[in-house]
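Here is a typical sample entry:
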Amino acid sequence: MQTEELDVLIIGAGLAGLTLARQLLLSRPEIRILMVDRQAEIPSPKQKVGEATVQVSGYYYSRVLEMEEHLLREHFLKYNLRFYWKTQRGGDVWEDLSQSYIRKISNIATYQLDRNKFEGAVLEKNRESPGFELIHPVTGLKVDLAEGDGDGPHAFRFEAAGRVISGRATWVVDASGRNRFLVRRRQLDRPSPIAHGSSFLWVEGLLDPEKCTHLDRKAIRLRPERSALGHFPTFLATNHYCGEGYWFWEIPLHGKTSLGLVFDSANVAFRDVSTPEKLVEWICREYPLFARDLPQRKILHHSGFNSFALDNGQTISPSRWAVVGEACRFTDPLYSPGGDLISTYNTLITDCILTPGRKELEAKIRLYEPLARAIYEAYVPSFAVSYCTLGDQECFSLRYVWELTVYFAFYVFPFINDLHVDQAFLPGFLRRFSRLGPINHGIHRLLAAFYRWKKENVVLAAPAPVFFDFTEVGALAAAELTFYQVGVSLEEARAVLDEQLENLRDLARWTMAHVTASVLDDPRAVTNAAYMRDIDVNDLQFDPEKMALRLAAACRETSETYSWRFAVPCMARFRAGRLAPVEMEASSS
């Protein structure tokens, strides 16, 4: 029998486990890590889903893990997220679609990952360290966790290649994906309020949406709409095609294109899209522009989930075990949060593993555990409450501006400053972040109700394409500037978050005011100072009758104009041809 004495046993050789090992080896090269996996081939020969990164995961994979050169050589740079809606012109060609987007590319590089290729590259880097070993396939894995107040090591045992291997490890990390090795054995599973499914496939070659068109090559280049849309290759974006309770992605990889439908089970039945043939038929029916190209493509691989959301009751234990990746939690892929949770949780777990003393470890976990829970739960209302808003460009754009402003200020800014593992920073951060909780829930309730109202009272499809750059809302542009505040002191970091918290509170007021102006067809709702002062951002409610009474009373009280903290865009573009034309937000039209 072979015996092992380890610092860390990592269960699972997927993205979460491999990147955790890489971070640990960079931080402490002499650390002893054994990684085990039940799969015969690592990476899996089957194509892996979850290719898009955003700012936290892009920064983590490239800068923290020092994989930047590989990413730039072997993967596409990502051109933000782009969202599309059908118009009254239909959806036969790309230029028929309305779009919401960010025209400028992110200063923090993000990437479209070929998961298999990236995981292989990280594994190769890990194997350069003498203290790292991967054994696979393994069977009969057993782990006996040392519990209580002691620091005794955990015992493990498994079989591989006809040998029995056993040993002890100071830390055990479950990165086993949906197998959820520790979560199942410790009965930590929690139900998720998110009831969404997905069906996805990969096709051979690059599917470029701009070529799904009637236009000739010159006309594609010289479209007057370029003044709004820009010239950067559209296919590099994570392109989202949206409808009520669903969206599907289009992501470029070298030599192939990833396509996937994600849906609320109340809006789409998994059985209707459960095969590659059914999925292609659904895509081409809902967005006919793809019928020009997609049916002729060779399908390389297909998979799906009837339900995919996951939660669990614990991330890191003072008894020196932890859970990360899909073994831990997963919400919905709309904003690619899975990689962000891996990046943040791995960073917390790495810091704990490198902490020798029990008391210091317990003190850290008292902060890290609520942080891990909070950054997950802040995503949940977006997917459990307001998923219907995907059916309308205006509602969704309001929602995404809010969510991205929170993300830039309270997720990206702390992460790029290593503040999530700063013991002096975290108590104040958690207090500030908690203040966003009721506002966040209220925003999602408000916009879901606004969507339902619009669905009953107006024609949702615009007569012609509408273009909206999210950064026209100055609150989001202000949050993006935090990318450039790096190496800050604790006092400076706290000041940044205080400023961004006020920025978000005013953004919530503007969102409520804009909804009021749209429903009541009264532009005074976005200018009247008394109405603004009367908005309780901790209790946002969609009640047209009360909104009308409050606005009328405010206008009787004063004609004073409210001074917004940020540039306010003209939103009248979303009502042309649907409501009586008005100049909403006339001061900035």
User: Anything to note?
Assistant: Residues 577-589 have pLDDT under 50 and may be disordered. The CA atoms of residues 87 and 461 lie 5 Å apart.
